[in-house]
TrEMBL record:
Highest taxon, organism lineage: Bacteria
Gene3D superfamilies attached to this UniProt entry: 3.30.420.40
Protein name: Rhamnulokinase family protein
InterPro entries according to UniProt: ATPase_NBD, FGGY_C, FGGY_Carb_Kinase, FGGY_N, Rhamnulokinase
Species this chain originates from: Streptomyces litchfieldiae
EC number, UniProt record: 2.7.1.-
UniProt keywords, alphabetically: ATP-binding, Carbohydrate metabolism, Kinase, Nucleotide-binding, Rhamnose metabolism, Transferase, Xylose metabolism
Keyword ATP-binding part of the UniProt annotation: yes
Length: 508
């Protein structure tokens, strides 16, 4: 298991002023434990431990290696303890959405959780649609159609020995928190991605569960961000060297919910793009949009912190480039990201683009070839080398960001004057500038660690180290985090012509 340690640098002014909180932030390719100090008008963050998240295929099924992830969490908390003299003011856990573990009556795990990219959900949307029409399902849950939503995973699992034996279902961050504390709960922002929750009531939809045959008693009681989630167990304290009691707080456990808390917006007229393996592009609302037009536009209504709704579209994201890099390395032609992006910046703009939301790109494997095939299908030239492939990916992502922001504004009625890019893509200056050019709006890039910062802020507020609503938390972010600004440039009609190629509206 690959790891990185940051060491223990000298204490900064922000650390001296604040209280130490650990954010466990699990992503699709790696996990990390981040140490944040919050309080006294200060907010700082540093990584203390990173570990790989490597799925495992067994018997034709793709699984998460959840025990390896838990080991990484414990080792990360040990490093956080070393950096703080064994004392933490709290711990919070966030991760990706939709996936879950099943427990038996004794609390034992019934097999490694299945990866959302596994093919077991093929055909499940159609099966569920026979019981509850897609428009009725959307009207009840407001969730974007994605073939791996939890409701379709549970449809695929029906009749299996594991589901028959299960007494408890815990989503991934809740499963990690359960192992740390011995207390089970279901945090609501992640629960909203199951397609079993009503975003208006912020509670389970009995109608949907009954229609699709899901037993809601499998789920532990719902928790809100900021609710207590227990304390680290004595054996966890012993393993990590931490001095108890150490509270665990329910944060926005869907990493995008935490990332949106970490958007340093000033006011309400903003769009956000949380970038990483996926790009989650949308706006923050006070109520869901459940119209048929919204469903046809494939927008989702996921719950956020402080009663908000994350109205957004899922876009394939930097997964496209990550998979290309993996394929090139496996073929003996490894590409360093920095030089590749520099070469992509010099490549012909908008020469070829693909639909970054196409389900064709969900599965791993053969990504450069699949991108080339998509270009052929739309009558565009194939990328000739890695630089042109990377430029195709980034132009395509910017085009998808443009469409999502425009649709979010139109469908919600929210005026938008700024786009915030947070997450790993905030480091990618070319992607940020292309997004500003495509949207015709200024882009504020950063913080890259928005999810961990949002995790820390919700913990710190629950502990009384910081105060106020989302506006106050975001003001603290603007005052303490480095941000970069990108102004739109160029001719937007070139983006219009590129978009038309994907819809059969013509070629340049």
């Amino acid at each position: 298991m690959g790891v990185e340690r940051s060491g223990t640098p000298a204490v900064s002014g922000a650390e001296a002023a604040g209280r130490p909180f650990a954010a466990v932030d699990l992503g699709a390719s790696s996990g990390r434990v981040m140490l944040g100090y919050a309080g006294g008008g200060e907010l700082s963050l540093r990584e203390v431990y990173r570990f790989l998240n490597e799925p495992v295929r067994i018997g034709g099924t793709l699984h998460w290696d959840i025990l390896a992830l838990y080991r990484g969490v414990v080792e990360g908390l040990r490093e956080a303890g070393r950096a703080t003299g064994g004392r933490l003011a709290g711990v919070g856990v966030d991760s990706w959405a939709v996936d879950y573990g099943l427990l038996d009556a004794t609390g034992a795990l019934l097999g490694n959780p299945v990866h959302y990219r596994d093919g077991r959900t093929e055909g499940m949307a159609e099966r569920v649609g026979e019981r509850l029409a897609p428009d009725e399902l959307y009207a009840a849950t407001g969730l974007q159609h994605l073939p791996f939503n939890t409701v379709f995973q549970l449809a695929a699992a029906q009749g299996s020995p594991q589901l028959a034996a299960a007494q408890r279902l815990l989503l991934i961050p809740d499963l990690i928190a359960y192992w740390l504390t011995g207390e089970a709960g279901t945090e609501v922002t992640n629960a909203s991605t199951t397609q079993l929750l009503d975003p208006r009531t912020r509670d389970w939809s009995e109608r949907v569960a009954k229609a699709v045959g899901v037993d809601l008693s499998l789920f532990a009681p719902l928790r809100q961000p900021g609710d207590p989630a227990g304390h680290l167990l004595p054996e966890v304290l012993a393993e990590t060297g931490l001095t108890g009691p150490v509270p665990v707080t329910a944060v926005g456990s869907h990493d995008t919910a935490s990332a949106v808390v970490g958007v340093p917006a000033d006011g309400e007229r903003f769009a956000y793009i949380a970038t990483g393996t996926w790009s989650l592009a949308g706006v923050e609302l006070t109520a869901p949009v459940l119209t048929e037009e919204s469903r046809r536009a494939n927008f989702t209504n996921e719950l956020g912190v402080d009663g908000t709704v994350r109205y957004l579209r899922n876009i394939m994201g930097l997964w496209l480039l990550q998979e290309c890099l993996r394929e090139w390395a496996a073929a003996g032609d490894p590409q360093e990201l920095g030089p590749l992006l520099a070469a992509a910046a010099r490549a012909t703009p908008l020469r070829s683009v693909v639909d970054a939301g196409d389900p064709e790109f969900i599965a791993p494997g053969g990504m450069p070839e699949r991108i080339a095939a998509a270009c052929r299908r739309t009558g565009q030239p194939e990328p000739r080398d890695p630089a042109e492939t990377a430029r195709c990916v980034l132009d395509s992502l910017a085009l998808a960001h443009r469409a999502a922001v425009a649709d979010a504004r139109r469908l919600s009625g929210l005026a938008v004057n700024t786009v915030h890019i947070v997450g790993g893509g905030a480091h990618n200056e070319l992607l940020c500038q292309l997004t500003a050019d495509a949207c015709g709006l200024p882009v504020v890039a950063g913080p890259a660690e928005a999810a961990a910062l949002g995790n820390i802020l919700v913990q710190a507020r629950a502990a009384g180290a910081v105060r106020g609503g989302l506006g106050a938390l975001r003001s603290l972010l603007r005052a303490t985090q480095p941000l970069r600004h990108h102004e739109p440039s160029g001719d937007r009609t070139a983006w219009d012509r590129a978009a038309a190629r994907l819809t059969g509206g013509g070629k340049d």
